[in-house]
Design brief:
Shape: elongated
Radius of gyration: 40 Å
InterPro entries: FH2_Formin (IPR015425), FH2_Formin_sf (IPR042201), Formin_Homology_Diaphanous_sf (IPR051412)
Structural class: mainly alpha
CATH superfamily of one domain: Formin, FH2 domain
Order of helices and strands: HHHHHHHHHHHHHH
GO cellular component, one term: actin filament
CATH class of one domain: Mainly Alpha
Organism: Scleropages formosus (Asian bonytongue)
Number of strands: 0
Distance between the termini: 139 Å
Largest sheet: none
CATH topology of one domain: Methane Monooxygenase Hydroxylase, Chain G, domain 1
Keywords: Coiled coil
Protein name: FH2 domain-containing protein
Number of helices: 14
């Protein structure tokens, strides 16, 4: 009981000792500082020297998260002479307050630590779209698929206002599965796949030609542009910070960023050329939608090929079963005929024998 009272008194004492920080900020900062047990001057040194070997990403993130506002740090700096009488969180505030432009410095350090990860997150998306654009434009097999779809469509629409069309929207490819046969067992997509398998087997290669459309369909062009602009903003800020404090050279980061920009510009050119080639309105179709349609059609076509194979296998199984039944029926009929012939012979022999007895 006495221990609890002493603890409460001690707590009140610590709270009273706070000169600037409120209790919640002080408590969170105290927990953070206690998590890696390092002298405050050492933390200050690491930040001043931008010691990337010691400054890990989680450490910087937590420091930024729990760092008091600059106004509070400025207020704490005035208590430097009363350092020994301050609580630990405020002692840390006094030490770290001497670092000029502390928060921008920490944000710059964090940006550098995260830069490689950001590049690795952005680059694959740009590359996927670039490669997918090239695949669609250069695939002769895919062009042949489009010719066959147009031919089938014009044949089906003969006599209507859509007869003899010169083209169709790429998004219509996914609608082939919606046109079903009279018995509702197959679709126009199954028919297309069957035509390709039986008469134009080389066309089936388009599935392998368009390997990157699925990855490209998961890329948001809007997010790519937003992330690149944010990266540029942070790099410019880092260059500005280099003028006011010593930090590791960012020339390599800027070089990687410029390469990303070139790749992104190339992506824009390739995508625009693709839209023009297929007469697609860029205002109506996004990157995700275009490659999403291509990815879905590719997947549905592969599924149709598999289903055609299963159907042929089932039909062949039924044919063999039917042939086996017919063979069994013929053998049965043949046995019955033999039996009848044998009975007829026996009857004739019996008749002759009886006639001989009469004579």
């Amino acid at each position: 009981m006495e221990d609890e009272q002493e603890e409460k008194k001690s707590m009140k004492k610590r709270i009273k000792e706070l000169k600037v920080l409120d209790s919640k900020i002080a408590q969170n900062l105290s927990i953070f500082l206690g998590s890696f047990r390092m002298p405050y001057e050492e933390i200050k040194r690491m930040v001043l020297e931008v010691d990337e070997e010691q400054l890990t990403e989680p450490l910087i993130q937590n420091l930024v998260k729990h760092l008091p506002e600059q106004e509070q740090l400025n207020a704490l700096a005035k208590y430097k002479s009363d350092y020994a009488n301050l609580s630990e969180p405020e002692q840390f505030g006094v030490v770290i307050s001497s670092v000029k432009r502390l928060r921008p410095r920490l944000n710059s350090i964090l940006f550098k630590l995260q830069f490689e990860e950001q590049v690795n997150n952005i680059r694959p998306g740009i590359m996927a779209v670039n490669v997918a654009c090239e695949e669609i434009r250069k695939s002769r097999s895919f062009s042949k698929v489009l010719e066959l779809v147009l031919l089938i469509g014009n044949y089906m629409n003969a006599g209507s206002r859509n007869a003899q069309s010169y083209g169709f929207e790429l998004g219509s490819l996914c609608k082939l599965k919606d046109t079903k046969s009279a018995d509702q067992t197959t679709t126009l997509l199954h028919f297309l796949a069957e035509i390709c398998e039986e008469q134009f087997p080389e066309v089936l290669r388009f599935v392998e030609d368009l390997q990157h459309v699925d990855k490209a369909s998961r890329v948001s062009a809007e997010n790519l542009e937003k992330n690149l602009k944010q990266m540029e903003k942070q790099l410019l800020q880092l260059e500005k910070d280099l003028e006011t404090f010593s930090a590791p050279d960012d020339s390599r980061d800027m070089e990687q960023y410029q390469k990303l920009v070139i790749m992104h510009n190339n992506m824009g050119t390739l995508y625009q050329n693709l839209l023009e080639y297929f007469a697609i309105d860029p205002k109506k179709t996004s990157v995700e939608e275009l490659f999403g349609d291509m990815s879905n059609f590719r997947s549905m076509f592969m599924q149709a090929v598999k289903e055609n194979a299963k159907r042929r296998e089932a039909e062949e199984k039924q044919r063999r079963a039917r042939a086996a039944r017919e063979k069994a029926e013929l053998e049965k009929q043949e046995r019955q005929k033999k039996k009848k012939r044998l009975l007829d012979v026996n009857a004739e022999v019996l008749y002759i024998s009886m006639m001989c007895l009469v004579v």
